[in-house]
């Protein structure tokens, strides 16, 4: 089964659930992740160091928000048509039999926030690994996100979404992450807010530049933490697409960017 056929199946499932289709995007990360899982014989969202897939999404030059759904099949002496059926079964199971994963794969594949998708497929004589990376790409960057001298800066134009929040998350990079059943952004450590607003319980960061609308520009200093610190921009979906998530995802709310930075403290 070709990657394009897998994405077509994902779109068929999205249509069944009344969700807009996604277009293909060659992010480079879906195939990288599938190759990695096959090479290492490691079926996990984290790599052996404990780094999550969104880290690799960013270092492959993708400055948007993404989520990953993965599956694999072990087989011996299967005819080709049975291998293809097994791969098709992986995708179907993600949507209809995903209770053991808390329906996370289902909601990743069906989330209307995503408008692009990438598929990686890697196999040998005994295994097939599949990676579906869903992408929320609603920002046209004039100046892509970057960090220089500990200052974060990004500038671009936003389509169909209204950015509302900038939250920083911190995650440990550890082999212990391999014990998790799923991956996450980590714990929230700060929000970026202009005066006079502030947030309770975590740090409030005052931005040097704060433009949060169709024209987006942000500049602020990152706090000093150790681990993987991710800048996440989230906002409101203006398209009024209705769907029924089975995870804590909120209808009409979308993440637009996850920009992770490995920090040493």
Automatic annotation (TrEMBL):
<dbReference type="InterPro" id="IPR035940">
    <property type="entry name" value="CAP_sf"/>
</dbReference>
<dbReference type="InterPro" id="IPR014044">
    <property type="entry name" value="CAP_dom"/>
</dbReference>
<protein>
    <recommendedName>
        <fullName>SCP domain-containing protein</fullName>
    </recommendedName>
</protein>
<dbReference type="Pfam" id="PF00188">
    <property type="entry name" value="CAP"/>
</dbReference>
<feature type="domain" description="SCP">
    <location>
        <begin position="7"/>
        <end position="129"/>
    </location>
</feature>
């Amino acid at each position: 089964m070709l990657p394009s056929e897998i994405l077509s199946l994902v779109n068929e499932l999205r249509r069944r659930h009344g969700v807009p289709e996604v277009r293909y995007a060659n992010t480079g990360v879906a195939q990288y992740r599938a190759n990695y899982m096959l090479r290492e014989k490691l079926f996990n969202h984290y790599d052996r160091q404990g780094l999550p897939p969104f880290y690799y999404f960013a270092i492959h030059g993708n400055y948007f928000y993404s989520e990953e759904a993965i599956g694999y099949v072990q087989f011996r002496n299967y005819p080709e048509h049975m291998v293809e059926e097994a791969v098709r079964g992986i995708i179907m199971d993600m949507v209809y039999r995903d209770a053991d994963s808390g329906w996370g794969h289902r909601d990743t594949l069906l989330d209307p926030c995503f408008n692009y998708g990438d598929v990686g497929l890697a196999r040998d004589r005994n295994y097939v690994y599949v990676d579906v990376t869903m992408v929320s790409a609603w920002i046209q960057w004039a100046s892509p996100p970057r960090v220089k001298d500990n200052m974060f800066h990004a500038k671009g134009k936003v389509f169909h979404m209204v950015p509302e929040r900038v939250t920083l998350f911190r995650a440990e990079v550890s082999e212990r992450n391999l014990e998790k059943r799923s991956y996450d952004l980590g714990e929230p450590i700060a929000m970026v807010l202009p005066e006079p607003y502030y947030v309770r319980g975590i740090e409030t960061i005052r931005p040097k530049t704060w433009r949060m609308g169709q024209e987006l520009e942000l500049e602020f200093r990152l706090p000093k933490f150790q681990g993987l610190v991710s800048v996440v921009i989230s906002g409101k979906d203006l398209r009024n697409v209705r769907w029924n998530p089975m995870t804590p995802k909120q209808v009409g709310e979308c993440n637009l960017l996850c920009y992770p930075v490995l920090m040493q403290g």
